[in-house]
Structure prediction request, 243 residues.
Amino acid sequence: MCRICKLQGTAGSCSTQWTATEILAQQAAGIAISASSKAQAAAEASLPSGIGEAGRRVLIKGGVVLSMDPAVGNFAVGDVLIEGARIIEVGASIDAGDAVVVDASGKIVMPGLIDTHHHQFETVLRGQLANAILINDGRPSSANNYYQSVLQTFSMGYSPDDVYINELFGSIAQLDAGVTTVMDVSQIHHSPEHSDAAIEGLRDAGRRSVFGYFEGWGEGARYPGDAARIRREHFATDDQLLT
Prediction:
């Protein structure tokens, strides 16, 4: 169960199954986000069962395949065969035997995009300060700047739950746009609880995430000394992957 479900007491369901479009539509309507078991079941039914499990074979068939690899090439109509969590074959027509088939006709099949610099805790502030400068350089026009307005003002009002929601929804919105990997430059470490919430939001989204531990302010901040605890509690596996 994710943090949102815990907050709303919706045991047995999980808001992370909503698409970014559904989430934003509900936000615009002022409706509390609470995924029903019916919605979760519908989301799960749209995916092949057991996908990602060892030995599970899935054939993505008949799409426009852009491999981004000159050695593999591109295909106007092609297939991609996945076994477990690995792509094992890309070609014009693959005979995959008992693999589950996903019809990709009329769709582009390509590697997920990579975002190398993102501040996901700022998702709720999207569109703010569009014409602002980075820091106050002494000119009157720079009085409304990123450092003072976002980092030193808006972010100081964030609770750990605010951090979690921004990290989660930022990830879901990017997944909806085909961005499957992110380097999250996180500047919201105002307490150990804020740090844990940021990591939890990234993890619950389920995509590949690099956690950039970077800056925090206020009386509760433990940056950078909290790095050892964060590594011990969240990144103690051999591969150091968040997801």
About this structure: The first helix runs from residue 3 to 8. Residues 15-37 have pLDDT under 50 and may be disordered. The CA atoms of residues 136 and 143 lie 6 Å apart. Residues 1-46 form one domain.
